[in-house]
Design brief:
Layout: E1 9-18, E2 31-35, H1 42-49, E3 68-75, E4 80-85, H2 96-112, E5 116-124, H3 131-144, E6 153-158, H4 165-179, E7 183-185, H5 194-205
Parallel strand pairs: 2-4, 2-5, 5-6, 6-7
Antiparallel strand pairs: 1-3, 3-4
Guanosine-5'-triphosphate binds at residues 36, 38-44, 58-60, 62-65, 87-88, 158-159, 161-162, 187-189.
């Protein structure tokens, strides 16, 4: 199956929501998870990627997404993917116990989930790296050594439209330097970066594993 130069999600639907590992849907479809602090724009990015206005619930109030949401996306050449919307990482208004339980669940999901092919990590371009973002970067790095297969990560800088055009490039460059890797700029408002992100997702998710 040849890859389209400008892939699009042609069909999208909600599949399942889960609060705990036992209620996750069976890992039969390749999966891409979207992680990041509360309010960074995970659910909005998913709507934008799937070209659907309100398939995923979003809110200006942090803490909107409270369950792991699974969405099936059909890409134009009929490839199927599950896009996984995660609740905000380290949401401060939750109790310490609740946050610890969530970190544990996330760790388990990242390490054990056989269908998970890629994590897309979101960082707000204006806020830069705060403690939750660093914790998440560290968590993903630590997961790599405990997985059977590698877990690639794509880091996305969100809400690019909130900066003036002139400020976007320097802000991205600064954040890239902090993270120590290349970032993709994104705006759910004007769909900047949608094509590049979808292309990166397809490349990772459907990559043929290297021969040992
Ligand atoms: N201007 C602008 N606003 C955005 C963008 N992405 C998200 N937002 C806004 O940011 C707020 C949070 O967006 P969500 O997509 O709900 O964020 P989330 O990361 O899913 O948040 P939680 O579910 O709480 O973890 C909403 O008011 C969105 O409209 C963007 O690219 N540009
Ligand atoms: Mg959300």
């Amino acid at each position: 199956m040849s890859a389209s130069p400008s892939p699009r999600v042609v069909q999208a639907r909600f599949v399942a929501a889960a609060r705990e590992i036992p209620s996750l849907p069976p890992p039969v479809t390749l999966e891409v998870a979207f992680a990041g602090r509360s309010n960074v724009g995970k659910s909005s990015l998913l709507n934008c990627l799937m070209e659907r206005q309100n398939l995923v619930r979003t809110s200006s109030t942090p803490g909107c997404t409270r369950q792991i949401g699974f969405y099936e996306a059909t890409v134009d050449d009929r490839r199927l993917l599950h896009l996984v919307d995660l609740p905000g990482y380290g949401y401060a208004k939750r109790s310490k116990t609740e946050r610890a339980a969530w970190a544990k669940l996330l760790d388990h999901y990242f390490v054990q989930r056989p269908s998970l092919m890629l994590v897309v990590l979101l960082i707000d371009v204006r806020r830069g790296i705060e403690s939750e973002d660093q914790e998440l970067l560290d968590l993903v790095a630590s997961v790599e050594q405990r997985r059977v297969r590698p877990l690639p990560v794509v880091v996305v800088a969100t809400k690019l439209d909130k900066l003036s055009r002139a400020a976007q490039k320097p802000a991205l460059a600064k954040l890239e330097q902090r993270v120590g890797r290349k970032l993709l700029g994104f705006s759910a408002k004007d769909a900047t970066g949608r094509q590049a992100l979808l292309t990166a997702i397809l490349k990772s998710a459907f990559a043929t594993p290297a021969e040992p």
